[in-house]
Amino acid sequence: MDRYFKLIIILFFTFFISFTLTSNTSLASKTENASSIVQKLIEKIQNIQETKYTEEEKRTEFLQVIQTFFDMNIVAKVSTGPYWRTATSNEKKRYTELITELIADVTASQLGDISNVEFQLPSSTQKGDKMVIVSGELLVPNQSKSKINMNWRFSTPDSDVPKIIDVEFENISMLVAQKEESVAIIRKNGGVFSALITAIEEKLRK
Amino acid sequence: MKYEYMILNRFFNYRSFSCFLSTSCSSVDEELISNRKDPFENTNRKIFVFNDKLDTVVLEPIAAGYNKVIPSYAKTAINNHVYWVGLPNNTINSALQRKWENATISSLHFTVNALTLGFVNLLKEDEPPHQQDFGQTLAFYGVSEGPYVVVPVTGGKTSRHAFAEVINFVINPYSAFTENKTINQAISFQPALTTISWRARNFELVNDLKYNSLDSYVRARSAYYQNRFKKIQSYNNNNDNNNAPSEADSLFDNLDTEG
Predict the structure, then answer these.
(1) Does the distance separating the beta carbons of A180 and B255 come in below 8 Å?
(2) What residues pair up with A147 in beta bridges, in sequence order?
(3) Stretches in chain A below the pLDDT threshold 70
(4) Which of A130, B103, B159, B258 keeps 20 to 30 A from B39, CA to CA?
(5) Cα(A155)–Cα(A125) distance, integer angstroms
(6) b/e map B27-39, b = 16+ CB within 10 Å
(7) Strands (E), B170-249
(8) Using CA atoms, how far apart are residues A172 and A170, in angstroms rounded to an integer?
(9) What are the Cα distances from residue A197, in Å, to A26, A96, B150?
(10) Helix (H/G/I), strand (E/B), else coil: B107
(11) Per-residue confidence (pLDDT) for residue B235, from 0 to 100
């Protein structure tokens, strides 16, 4: 009986230690993965900046970058807050497409003409089970503020590649700001989700 | 002490407080309000439009010219000077918040850099003091932030912060030198210099907010609240800015359960 008891204790500890080690390794790999994705993204942006694209080509390249590195389904869902549930599936699909285009447009206008963008001093922090934040400094030469503190928030599901769900410049989360804007536009229009779609379409046409 | 907090809190919670800034305050229909912190959105938006036009006509061109004409070493020197000028206020507010270490570092930076009038930072290698203003001091003592108000020229802030800026101005240690004509003239230039150097330093960020957003008023308000929240949280919790809680954290709380 005593032998069985010892065996159970040994088995329990073996299981406990292996579980702890595995989960720590998995957390470490998640943070490393997220950091390397940011580096890849910066390299991709540098490539776009170094290649002589037309404005339209640049925009298309940035659109591809956003589609590859960002989880636009989460961005779309979170950026409309409680109104996501009120939208029809067509509206959800259209909004997701438009918000992706809007982000690509803004990124192209902000970073399109700058060369030698660099990301320095990266550090990663695990936030709960499913999120990682990569922090660092974005060096943007020839801009009035050449060093910008940045945080990249990643969703890190166990089954999938980590994807960016939010970007913070100087403590300002773009997703929080987008959510407040979207909610304000929908509220101003009596809770009609399609008003937001119209507003983004108008903005993109300008 | 508790009684003092009660009076201050009542003062800041009083809805009409922000109306001292404007005689035509009007609150918005609850249904149409875009943020509960902003009960005077209609009036605020009007002042925001005025500030926005003022920025487009005056500040933006000046900041653009400043960025073009002033060499980067001179801009760094001006930024250093503007920062140095604010250090006595920083020391006072750190002390009021019983952050003695920060108060000491702040006064040390002020004293050492006084040799160059702050234009050259002689303590570049050392950790700079955390910036503390009277609004943060009021937050430290538990005074509620009050409604959001857009002040003509200076922009949107919580009423606690707006009140604190007035106090910051009143307790300005340089006011002790008002009899000296040269110092007096230098003091009168400070607000303009601070505003221009801030606008020039944040030229692209502010322009992005103005020209790339769907609703620049809401985006400006969001940026203000996020920045302020992080400033107050980071130092009160002894975190650096990057690890301080962020408003974005709460966005993802129910991500898995939402439909």
Answers:
(1) no
(2) A139
(3) 1-3, 5, 7, 11-28, 142, 144
(4) B258
(5) 12
(6) bbeeeebbbeebb
(7) none
(8) 6
(9) 39, 10, 28
(10) helix
(11) 60
Token duo for residue B7:
């009076």
Please state the separation of Cα B161 from the chain's center in Å.
7
Identify residue A38 by its one-letter amino acid code: V
Q: CA distances (Å), B220 to each of B25, B45, B102, B217, in order?
A: 20, 11, 30, 5
Whether complex ipTM tops 0.95: no
Check residue B129 and report its DSSP letter: P
CA-based nearest distance B232→chain A, Å: 12
Q: Which two tokens stand for residue A204?
A: 């993109």
Cα dist from B146 to B142, B191, B218, B242, whole Å: 12, 25, 18, 27
Whether the CB-CB separation of A39 and A119 falls below 8 Å is answered with: yes
Using one digit for the tens of pLDDT, what is the confidence trace for A48-87? 888 888 888 888 999 999 999 999 999 999 999 999 999 9
Query: Any chain A CB within 8 A of the CB of B154?
Result: no
User: From the first residue on, what is the mean pLDDT of each consecutive set of 10 residues in chain B (259 residues)?
Assistant: 48 45 47 76 96 96 94 90 90 93 94 92 85 91 94 94 88 69 75 90 89 93 91 65 64 58
